[in-house]
Design brief:
alpha/beta; 4 helices; 5 strands
Length: about 180
């Protein structure tokens, strides 16, 4: 009977090599830093409260993006460059004349005041993603400009010097109310 010694492989340095490869890939790889779209989710409806408040048709600006990427605002075809102005004039309309800081044209067909204005955004599933992002940007720009004007003209301050109370007043004056749906 023979005594066979099987040759062994020295695996002591294998752990060092694996560790060095791990460090190499961690150092050379990039971790994406996607920001996304900043939106606050609505608060849950308190128990016992009726949260299905009917909206008047004139208080809803309906923005639709079809499968070709074409944009309509209240059934009127528009381009992305004109959308921000249409959103601002809709929100700041002041049809019920209750808003003292609004500069709108007081049209009956547009929103009663900024606190009642809602934007309904409907996107076709096959529409280009860039158009969706562009419309979201225009909505954000419109609200930003309206809020910026409110801070400078009504609160008589600038964004850098705003207090927490000023921030709440600004958000209450121009609340962001967006309804999103897919077609």
């Amino acid at each position: 009977m023979r005594n066979f010694n099987t040759p062994s492989v020295n695996a002591g340095s294998m752990a060092d090599i694996a560790f060095l490869l791990l460090i190499f890939f961690l150092v050379t790889s990039m971790i994406p830093n996607d920001k996304g779209i900043a939106r606050d989710l609505p608060q849950p409806c308190p128990s016992g409260a009726d949260c299905n408040i009917p909206l008047k048709k004139n208080n809803i600006l309906s923005i639709r993006i079809n499968e070709k990427g074409e944009i309509t605002a209240n059934e009127i075809r528009t381009n992305i460059e004109d959308l921000k102005g249409a959103i601002k004039s809709f929100i700041d309309n002041n049809a019920d004349k209750s808003c003292l800081y609004c500069k709108g044209e007081q049209l009956i067909s547009a929103s009663d005041n900024p606190k009642k204005a809602s934007i309904s955004l409907s996107i076709h599933r096959e529409s280009p993603y860039q158009n969706f992002i562009s419309v979201q940007d225009e909505i954000a720009k419109a609200y930003f400009e309206l809020r910026e004007n409110y801070v400078s003209e009504v609160l008589k301050t600038n964004a850098n010097e705003m207090t927490e109370d000023d921030l709440k007043k600004m958000q209450k004056a121009y609340p962001i109310r967006i309804i999103e749906s897919a077609l």
